[in-house]
Amino acid sequence: MSAELPGTIFDPIRQQRVKLTPEERVRQAMVYTLIHSYGYPPELMANEACITVGKVSRRCDTVVYSRERRPLMILEYKAPTVPLTQDVVVQAFQYNSVLCVPVIVLTNGHELLAYHIGYDGAPTTQLPELPTYAALLSL
To answer: DSSP states of the chain as a string?
Structure first.
């Protein structure tokens, strides 16, 4: 276990201490909620998951996987002072061009947007709430 350092927080997904930025505070709160309130298995979550969009390397804030390691959900976090604008939505949807998940979630800790992604001509719809892990598996 690494020593406590001022201005850091232990990330249970990455199993290391990370700098405690406003965005990281939002991430850790959401990860805690997903695990403890929505039944998400921590071993099926990745923080700062690396992907390549076009020829550019990017990092998804959090990706949730099925037991078969199929990506199921992308979560994109912003600091509480950053509004969830169309640019934030576009960023997450660009990541999805690689991962092809059924659900995208955006949050700044105050506002939360969740989308069920339509494929093969089906519409993308906004979800009224976060799905539980069991519900996510059925989407």
So the answer is: -PPP-TTEEEETTTTEEEE--HHHHHHHHHHHHHHHHH---GGGEEEEEEEEETTEEEEEEEEEE-TT--EEEEEEE--TTS---HHHHHHHHHHHHHH--SEEEEE-SS-EEEEEPP-TTPPPEE-SSPPPHHHHHT-
